[in-house]
Amino acid sequence: xxxxxxxxxxxxxxxxxxxxxxxxxxxxxxxxxxxxxxxxxxxxxxxxxxxxxxxxxxxxxxxxxxxxxxxxxxxxxxxxxxxxxxxxxxxxxxxxxxxxxxxxxxxxxxxxxxxxxxxxxxxxxxxxxxxxxxxxxxxxxxxxxxxxxxxxxxxxxxxxxxxxxxxxxxxxxxxxxxxxxxxxxxxxxxxxxxxxxxxxxxxxxxxxxxxxxxxxxxxxxxxxxxxxxxxxxxxxxxxxxxxxxxxxxxxxxxxxxxxxxxxxxxxxxxxxxxxxxxxxxxxxxxxxxxxxxxxxxxxxxxxxxxxxxxxxxxxxxxxxxxxxxxxxxxxxxxxxxxxxxxxxxxxxxxxxxxxxxxxxxxxxxxxxxxxxxxxxxxxxxxxxxxxxxxxxxxxxxxxxxxxxxxxxxxxxxxxxxxxxxxxxxxxxxxxxxxxxxxxxxxxxxxxxxxxxxxxxxxxxxxxxxxxxxxxxxxxxxxxxxxxxxxxxxxxxxxxxxxxxxxxx
Length: 504
Description:
Layout: H1 2-27, H2 44-51, E1 57-63, H3 69-88, E2 93-98, H4 104-112, E3 118-124, E4 127-133, E5 135-141, E6 144-148, H5 157-169, E7 175-180, H6 191-197, E8 202-207, E9 218-224, H7 232-243, E10 247-251, E11 255-258, E12 263-266, H8 272-276, E13 280-282, E14 285-289, E15 292-301, E16 304-318, E17 320-321, E18 333-334, E19 341-343, E20 349-356, E21 361-365, E22 368-369, E23 387-394, E24 402-407, H9 425-439, H10 445-448, H11 462-503
Parallel strand pairs: 1-2, 7-8, 7-9, 9-10, 10-24
Antiparallel strand pairs: 1-5, 3-4, 5-6, 11-12, 12-22, 13-19, 14-21, 15-16, 16-18, 17-20, 20-23, 23-24
Helix pairs in contact: 2-5, 6-9
């Protein structure tokens, strides 16, 4: 009786605890984020944006149901994130999920709001068929709307949501000036960058002359690939801008390659001495790197023209980055000719290298001839970690602190007229991250490249891989055999004991 009463009281206690936990969970939520980069924890930047809301925000997520497992988890992650947004904003953010596949009217509503379906492969009864899937959202505040057409698996979901909310809630966007007048690319020539920047900033062209007065509203100046000389009077205007605490992004060519005559020459636009006074030198040398892009070589074989892709070390592909907000999350930036950057300034200026050539790289003086068919050897890459991008901080002009982000390739973010040359994503991110770093004080730069990253098994020798493979295969079998032998011995011992008792 005592044992039975104890079991009953234990069961009753467990039931009461479960009921209490369910009641508490209705009013309180608690999660532990064990991911390395805190993918499921709202950043300080997002929390600040949500706290500053003075109007309610509605997020309508157009999401199909019963998606394949490899992308179906996006729905759960988005729902958890929207719950956090609602809680952190004290109810100023409300959300709802709509399945456009249920009704034609809902599908038309999604398309009207800019959420286009994608076609995905779904396996049913050992057959693969294509199905329409919606995976986007519309963020609205009053009559204003911002669309997120598609949530890319593993992409920065929080950045998309937070920037959409900020774009709706900010009345006066910071102004970014794109310097013109020296052959620089127009806004149309950097269309991919402009699309990204226009989310948070107002990008305006500014022609720099000897008498230009830079307006106070300009948060950051961007000077990208000037080809004509920038006069001394104009450089003084830039110094005055720095002296009042302004910031500059500068992508500058010191070398250029001409594929028509296969020649590489140096370039000078008048900024070299201006930078040297600040302690920075961009050598008029070509960086060559074993990690590089390719060029297409056409060869005539009889009546046929053969196209062959050849590695071209003059087009370095950068994989080595410092731990810095500008380069956080970047994996690969492709440069179209670059030069090494060195620093010899004093302690009043802080020099921060942020991007480097690989461990097998080199530097070649101009002028030079491009031998496309050259067989490159390891001895051609005697250098390591040449700086191709840096940050200058401190009293660059006058007594106020300012910043310059410098990249020694002026073409890395130029896509050409109407975006004719599709740029790698990280090329665009490097420039946009730089502008965010110089202009935005909300911290959204940390969200741009915040994503769920894969962590593949590290490279190992074939012998080690084979050993692990056989261990994985044999270990369960060996454990089962050991367990069977132990059970057999235990049963044998029991039989022996029973025989001994019967014998007595």
